[in-house]
Amino acid sequence: xxxxxxxxxxxxxxxxxxxxxxxxxxxxxxxxxxxxxxxxxxxxxxxxxxxxxxxxxxxxxxxxxxxxxxxxxxxxxxxxxxxxxxxxxxxxxxxxxxxxxxxxxxxxxxxxxxxxxxxxxxxxxxxxxxxxxxxxxxxxxxxxxxxxxxxxxxxxxxxxxxxxxxxxxxxxxxxxxxxxxxxxxxxxxxxxxxxxxxxxxxxxxxxxxxxxxxxxxxxxxxxxxx
Length: 226
Ligand SMILES: CC(C)(COP(=O)(O)OP(=O)(O)OC[C@H]1O[C@@H](n2cnc3c(N)ncnc32)[C@H](O)[C@@H]1OP(=O)(O)O)[C@@H](O)C(=O)NCCC(=O)NCCS
Prior knowledge:
Elements: H1 10-18, H2 22-28, H3 30-40, H4 50-60, E1 62-63, E2 68-69, E3 73-75, E4 82-84, E5 89-90, E6 95-97, E7 103-105, E8 110-111, E9 116-118, E10 121-123, E11 128-129, E12 134-136, E13 138-140, E14 154-156, E15 159-161, E16 166-167, E17 172-173, E18 178-179, E19 184-185, E20 190-191, E21 199-202, E22 207-213, E23 218-221
Parallel strand pairs: 1-4, 2-5, 3-6, 4-7, 5-8, 6-9, 7-10, 8-11, 9-12, 10-15, 11-16, 12-17, 15-18, 16-19, 17-20, 19-21
Antiparallel strand pairs: 13-14, 21-22, 22-23
Helix pairs in contact: 1-2, 2-3
The structure holds coenzyme A (COA).
């Protein structure tokens, strides 16, 4: 993300603007927004300035008791939430970026090595996220063929991951996808549609492979046409 990105969804923008808060006023004025971006971000870099990381974020973001953050790239801004629940772990070389929307992670959740979390994103408790998983709550606009894609507005839609889910290595989860409780995403999947609870999905695009049947108490194969 660069310093020119739009920070929020239209709905979130309307909500914060209507509150009449300082942040809402800044977000609804192009001039103030430009100034805020300059003060918050290093020019031409997607990283927040050092003062933001050291003097602002620690007062607004929350880290639960016993949570662990290893060598993680934290591209975090103070005007969106970042929460890491008790006992949760962000492993080495993970990246978290909340410029486009909040990131909220429940308790006892593991974010594996090299995974990339781009908000808006809400992850439940007891979730296992394996290595190099990418969650992107943002999409770049590409529709205007007269402008480079990097100059077009981003859109955002919240990704939600239910409790007890397991996301296999190298999976990609696209904006707006909801993954149900205790669902499994197979390694290498590209998930573009919602995943029901107690199911296994896999492939590109990810398809339903298995579903738990509470009557038979078995994980049953789902035919390709389902
Ligand atoms: C999904 C997974 C858990 C398989 O679980 P399983 O219950 O043992 O299921 P099976 O091996 O019987 O496979 C079930 C079906 O899913 C398919 N499948 C399995 N893994 C798949 C994958 N990565 N992509 C697409 N399809 C996959 C199988 O081909 C099989 O299809 P079929 O029913 O048409 O034969 C496993 O393959 C996987 O992806 N694990 C992720 C491992 C990982 O990322 N570890 C990192 C450390 S946390």
